[in-house]
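Worked example 2:
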Amino acid sequence: MRTVIAGGHGQVGRRLARTLVERGDDVVAFVRSAAQITDLTELGAHVALIDLEKDDAVAVSFELEGVDAVVFAAGAGPGSGAPRKDTVDRAGAALLADAAERAGVGRYVLLSSRGVEAARADERPDDVDDVFWAYLRAKAAAEDDLRAREDLAWTIVRPGHLTDDPGVGLVALAPVGDGDKPRGKRRKPGAAVGERSDVTRDDVALVLAAVLHEPRSAGLVLDLVGGDRPVDDALADVLP
C-alpha cells in the first residue's frame, strides 16, 4: 500500500510513518520544511514538500498520483492561535480531500479528537480555553466536510488526551453513532470508552495503521483511549 501522511513530521505522523514502513508499506510524508526531510528519510519514508496552507488542490493532487490512501495527521501545533486552527485543522483537511478526489485516491483517514461533539453542539465546557475550543470546532468542521464526500472511503479516529509515554499496544475503541444509526457493533457492557481519557501517541499510530489496512473500517467514527485490548482485537470488535 502506498500511503501519504499529511503532517508527516508531526508527533503522530512520524510514529505512523515508522509503523507503516515496518509493515512494508510505501510511505510518502508531506512536510512544510526542507529541514524536516532527513528525519523522515531516516525512517524509510519518501518526502514531499507540501504546505496545505499555501498550496492548492491541483498542486497537491500531483503528489497523490498512484497513492492508495491518505492520512490527515497535520495540525497547527502548540503555540498557534485560533486562526491557524481553522487554516490547518479544518481547511487543510478539506484541501487534502479535494486533492485526493482529483487524483482518484479512494481512502482517507482523519485524525480528529475527542470533544468534537461538544463543539458541534456548541456546548463549551468551562475548562476549555479559546484556542482549544477553536481547535475542536475546526476538527468538527473537518469531520463534517469529510463525511459529506461520497467518493472517499473515510474513517475518523478521535483519540483522547495524547501522551508521550511508551506505547503498550492496548487500547479501547468505541464507534460513535451517526444520528440514530450507530456504525459498527456495539461493544460489550463495560468495554466502551469511558473511564480513561488518555492514549499514547505510539498507540494512536498503531490504530491508524490498523484502520488503513482494514477496508471494513470505512464509514466508522471511532473514539480511542488507552485500554486493555490489543489493537487488532479492539478494531475487530467494532467492525460492521
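Residues 160 and 197 are 5 Å apart (CA to CA). Confidence is low (pLDDT under 50) at residues 178-194.
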